[in-house]
Design brief:
The chain has helices spanning about 1-5, 10-15, 20-25, 55-70, 90-110, 120-145, 235-250, and strands at about 30-35, 40-45, 75-80, 85, 150, 170-175, 180, 185-190, 210-215, 255-265, 275-280, 280. By secondary structure, it is of the alpha+beta class. A 4-stranded mixed sheet has the order 4-10-9-8, with helices on one face. A 3-stranded mixed sheet has the order 1-2-3. Helix 5 crosses helix 6 (about 120-145) and helix 5 crosses helix 7 (about 235-250).
Length: about 290
């Protein structure tokens, strides 16, 4: 039901017949969590007005009923997604170590299968950014869902073919004890701050939802060409020294990330013909 409401959310909150104040408050709102018939709606803290809270919530419930036919009670959660999350030294060190240790497998197996030939330095910085994005989302999620925590998957896969199958959130931990396997595939995509589009490779169009996280750092100043000696990557001492060199390059500044949004698989369209995807397979628009 949550996915159905999410698919109609634009109409629910932004129809021109609604009061302008209501539309403004809910412009960047997110239908976040449905527990029975109670829907938590995230809105930006900077637009929240306590005086209009009850009236806006009643209107939300009425709009959902009109659009979807569902009887839903709405409550607010303050969405702090526009607040930058500081990249901690632990996030950075874990991400750099993961990227360096995975680079050897990438080099041996399928690095040259990319359509655009990319240097190992390019792959390295992209992997660091992607892993940092997972840690940023973890902090974002745990700031909202106090009862649950996320376990980051830092397993090293032997190629881009043998992967986590499009699920960056393998399990959730409730109240520090109970572990639940997550069968709803969440792919967390890290990108530069100036990026405007959530781009998904065809081979990775297998997840249920994609989360867009922007990471702020000027990586182009960090890595020169041939910084990585691929012949030495099999040696642990070389990798450990490379990790230290990279962390030293990051040490003089603070870096930030923020969760900018998300899209369900059914929201993704192909770049050329704009045909929607469904579980990794394109289908004609008149079928969906």
């Amino acid at each position: 039901m949550l996915q159905e409401i999410s698919g109609e959310w634009k109409q629910i909150v932004s129809d021109e017949s609604y009061p302008s104040g209501f539309r403004f408050v809910h412009k960047n709102s997110i239908p976040y969590h449905l527990d029975g018939n109670i829907l938590t709606v995230l809105i930006e803290e900077k637009v929240y007005k306590e005086n209009y809270r009850n009236a806006n919530l009643l209107r939300l419930s009425k709009n959902i009923k009109n659009v979807t036919g569902k009887d839903i009670e709405c409550i607010y959660g303050l969405n702090k997604r526009e607040t930058d999350i500081t990249v901690s030294s632990n996030m950075l060190s874990e991400s750099v170590e993961f990227a360096v240790n995975s680079l050897d497998y990438m080099t041996q197996n399928d690095f040259q299968q990319f359509e655009l030939k990319r240097s190992m330095e390019d792959y390295l910085i992209d992997t660091i950014r992607g892993k940092i994005a997972e840690y940023v989302f973890k902090e974002f999620f745990e700031n909202i869902e106090k009862s649950y925590s996320i376990e980051i998957d830092n397993k090293i896969y032997k190629s881009t073919i043998v992967t986590d199958n499009g699920n960056d959130l393998e399990s959730l931990i409730k109240n520090g004890n109970d572990r639940y396997l997550n069968n709803f595939k969440v792919d967390i995509k890290g990108s530069k701050t100036e990026s405007q589009w959530l781009l998904i490779e065809d081979s990775k169009a297998v997840s249920d939802v994609y989360v867009f996280v922007k990471i702020e750092f000027e990586e182009e100043h960090f890595f020169g060409e041939n910084m990585v000696d691929k012949k030495s990557l099999t040696f642990q001492n070389y990798r450990e020294n490379l990790i230290k060199i990279i962390l030293n390059k990051f040490s003089n500044n603070k870096y930030y990330g923020k969760v900018s949004g998300f899209a369900y698989m059914t929201d993704i369209v192909s770049n050329g013909d704009k045909i929607p995807y469904n579980n990794g397979t394109k289908f004609p628009t008149n079928n969906g």
